[in-house]
Amino acid sequence: MLQRTIELEAALVKFFAHLKQPGGRKEFKGVGKKLRRPKAEEWLTIKCLQTLLGPFAVASETLGGQAYPTMPLVLPALSGIRKHLERTDLFSAFAAEAGEESYVPETVAKMNECRKVMLELYETRFKDVENSELRWVAFLDPREHRNFMYHHMFGPDIVPSGASDLTTECTKEFSRYLEAIARVKSTVIPFTWWQVNGTNYPNLRRLARKWLGSVATSVPSKRAFSTSGNILTVKRSSLKPDRVRDLVFLAENWKGINALTPHRRSGAA
């Protein structure tokens, strides 16, 4: 809503100017008494709020997807939000655009207070997340090229002499994996990449199979409930549970199956 309001700012300014004209008052009789033109400080507040909340909207939409792996995106999304909230110059551009008006310092100060409160709430809720399993789950997406986090997972580059054969094998395998994904384009589909290259990384492949299919939010589950409601209607209330389960599965995965399965037209050679 805030983004849409900002996009309509120029149109709203012209509309309220039109309302002051005789033709506008006649065309929109009585509207002028019901509507109030936003003040300059209110426009500044709207723009600051949109900037402050924008990354949350992007993260919510991205993590609520179900056509791609979402679990590896949790840590990058949270890290990006934290860095966004830590910016002390977040509203500087809007303050400079507004000029030296008397309302600017107070409005920007209030917005910075909101930013600080949100940062405190973030630290309270997510302070332990960046040190959780999500650190290495993010690496199962081959589009992640952040090699600097390797040390957080395996420590020094040199494998201790007393390390087990499995530890040595996994460390070498992960090193080869990091070298390979450094050349992966951001447009690649993670599932397809693992289907083609999984045999080269047998230990990581087992982790990828487990975690890449995990969803980051409950949004896909809520969509599945809606699908169940569309399938189990009054006229189909006698369906057995197993049949309902299969129908929901087909409805939720049919588009993905069509996208991954090559089709041939009937009669084609």
TrEMBL record:
Domain of life from the UniProt record: Eukaryota
A Gene Ontology molecular function term of the record: zinc ion binding
UniProt-annotated location(s): Nucleus
Main location as per UniProt: nucleus
InterPro entries referenced in this protein's UniProt entry, alphabetically: HATC_C_dom, RNaseH-like_sf, ZnF_BED_domain_contain
Keywords, sorted A to Z: Metal-binding, Nucleus, Zinc, Zinc-finger
Keyword presence, Zinc-finger: yes
Gene Ontology annotations for the cellular component aspect, listed alphabetically: nucleus
HAT C-terminal dimerisation domain span: 175-252
Protein name in the entry: HAT C-terminal dimerisation domain-containing protein
